[in-house]
Amino acid sequence: MTPAVRFFALAVAFSVPLHALSRGIKWLDEGRSVLIRLDIPGLPLWNQEEHIGEDKPSALILNFTVTPDRHTLLLQDQAILPLSDPNAPPRINAPQTPETIAEFENRKSTDYDNLPFFALDYERIVHPRDDPSIQYYNYVPSLTLNLLGAGIEGYNTLLKQSDQLVIKITLKDYNAYNGGKTTNPPIHLFEVTHVRLWERWPNNPWIGPDELSECTSWSWRCEEFGDTPWYRYIYRKDFDRYGKIGSLRHAFLQRWGTLNERLGFWRVVLLLSVAVTMTVSPIVYCVYKAGNAIKRVYNFRTRVSKWELDDEEVEGLLVGDDFEVKYEKDHVREGEDSSTLEKPLPPVPTGQATSTSS
Description:
The chain is α+β, with helices and mostly antiparallel strands and 358 residues long. The protein has 5 helices and 16 strands. The relative contact order is 0.10.
């Protein structure tokens, strides 16, 4: 084999998805429902009688089913695409089985109710992103599910093993195909076209809960995406029915839900009305008083300004009169002859004044 041929063969070997497996996949209804057996190397086999984990190989059974109206893809009877509530991702439980792949494929029954059920932590990725505000033509979404942890009866295990496989499911939306486009709210017409198991590394490495950003009340949702769906890594301890624990939205809805459960809806509404009234009334009163104070100051300043204007007019008139009198006096003194001025009366003689008195 020449070097060129050897290089070409190696390139083909690494490019062909040999790590994409189809074993452990059983179709219950072609294009609509599929059963998957997923080996979990880091999860001990649970002994239901002794309530302990045994160091034996085990697998989880996952069922993906399209609803009869073909609008939604379900995982263990929970809406996984699209999500029914993106703020509170679904809680997934899966039965654990010790059976091998051959036993799984040859098994006639699909009843796993007598097996122990594990609650799951998982990573959920949809490409293209399942944001209903984005319109897609020829919508062919691919769902990737990577299991991150599992728990039962208070015991929890983080599934860190790199040799664990991830599930990839491809669907076709016939409502957004051949010229159609997705709608908001979404109305899909799904069909499952491909189901494969892929190696976790390197595209979907395990991410632990401590590696995620801390959720605080400074954030409304503590989201990982800017739009719907908000979250990629779903750890059970981080979510409840009110959303992501620690966020401001969660605190608000939790308090509302608690009041609603204890008092009833209408009592809560009445209580909120009273609280709002008691809070707003002082503010309205303060605004009213401040408005009146401003109005009084404005009126006072208007009157003062008017008084000052009147005083200036009177003072101007007085100044004008004094100026005219002064002008006349100065004009007489400077411009007219002194002979024309009126002479003062002479003093009365002393003798004449005496005779007159006698």
